Amino acid sequence: MKDGMRFVDCDMHIMEPVDLFDRYLDRAFRDRVSLPMGADGKRTRGMIVVDGQPTTFDLETQQHRKPHHGLRKADTSQPLSGSRIAEGGRLDFAIERGYDGEAQIMGMELEGIDIAVLFPTMGLSLLARDGMDPRLSLALAQAYNNWVHEFCQHSPDQLKFAAMLPPHDVNLACAELVRCVTELGAVGSFVRPNSVNGHFWHSNYWNPLLALHEELDVTLGLHEGTGAAYSHMNVLYGENRFYRHVASHWIEMQQALIAMLIGGVFEFYPKLRVGFLEAQNSWVPGILTRIEWDYPQYRDSHAPYLSLTPREYFQRNCWAAVEGSEPEIEATAGLIGAERMCISTDYPHFDSNFPNVANNLLANVSRETAESIFMGGAHLYNFDEAHFAKAARAAEKNRAAAAE
User: Fold this and answer.
1) N or C: which end of the chain has fewer CB within 10 A?
2) Are the C-beta atoms of residues 177 and 216 closer than 8 Å to each other?
3) Mean pLDDT score of the chain, rounded to an integer?
């Protein structure tokens, strides 16, 4: 808990081990994935190549960029920027433990998190391109999901995960969602907000997947990450990651919300829960106002199936995450409702404010607003009293073990 308030981290990250694919990828696909290797002959972090192509646009386009002069290589795992979180030594405990489950729980304790829903790091860009072999896409997703499931077993009542779905075949995505929820205990899934193989999020192509989330009563998370090979932001801004990081995290999310709202996703799937993650959320009131401005003019002719206003759909089906320090949080809460907000620590990424995410929120808003936002992830992922009771017992057990 944080200052007596329950706290669900709607979007906490892990650092995948460098040998994940050696251990978990189906042998039939291993020769299609290559990873960097150190002088000692062991795997190391860096560019992953799948079918001869880098999995991130950043490393392909920024090949001539030089590192900043005062940064040691070990200071950051992010290839383009200096990490403000690493420079202060705040991640030393995690680095020393190889970002294992124990380190994850220690990070949660530092922030006051009761339950965390885990998302990948390199996995965000792993499937982020058009034209990938659907079976390879599935194999990569399965490898990650099997690993993260095992990772969560360190403290399964505190650590939950969103399943990686293979977006290149909707039927394979459905099958993997069922497997992850029914066999591995996933509390939802994640996809990127980008268009995949020409299919955007208002397309009927995705209907089986949307229906399945509703039927299984699990959450669909939209999570951008910059560096996607198929993102239009690459065309607009090229190698400059500053441009693309700003644009992708906001604009790709706005486009996905426009598609879902006007396309009737929430009309036809009224129980679907969708989280717009790691994109802050002060963009939400503005885009809702813009859609509602056009609503009287175009609803009858272009979207006659809509029975609610865009704002009503959002306040029934959607949550949007904050990262604690944004100055607009209280104002945004007044416009869309603090109960439609959740909070992401973004641990252990280079631009996270860990371990002060929760402190920043408390310094930024009223306690009442903070309490709603801390609990937003519980509503997004449908955690109830039983979940919190189990998490509390697990946390106490972990504290006792650490004290020995």
Assistant:
1) C
2) yes
3) 91
Domain of residue 15 covers 8-403
Residue 117 lies in a domain: yes
How far apart, in whole angstroms, are the C-alpha atoms of residue 169 and residue 105?
Answer: 35
Report which secondary-structure segment, H or E, holds 214: helix 207-216
Residue 84 burial by CB count (10 A; 0-12/13-18/19+): exposed, middle or buried?
middle
pLDDT tens for each residue of 246-281: 887 888 999 999 999 999 999 999 999 999 999 999
In tens, the pLDDT along 310-354 reads 999 999 999 999 999 999 999 999 999 999 999 999 999 888 999
Q: Contact, 347 vs 354, CB < 8 A?
A: yes
State the Cα–Cα distance between residues 121 and 351, nearest whole angstrom.
13
In-domain check, residue 121: yes
- pTM of the predicted structure, to 2 decimals: 0.92
Asked if the model's pLDDT at residue 238 lies above 90, the reply is no
| Residue-level pLDDT at 234 | 76
Instruction: Quote the tokens at residue 114.
Output: 């009761």
Tell me whether strands 33-34 and 49-50 are parallel, antiparallel or unpaired: antiparallel
Q: Is residue 3 part of a domain?
A: no
User: Where does 35-173 show beta strands of DSSP type E?
Assistant: 49-50, 53-54, 115-119, 159-164
Q: How many domains does the chain have?
A: 1
Reported as a pLDDT band with limits 50, 70 and 90, residue 87 is: low
Amino acid identity at 256: A
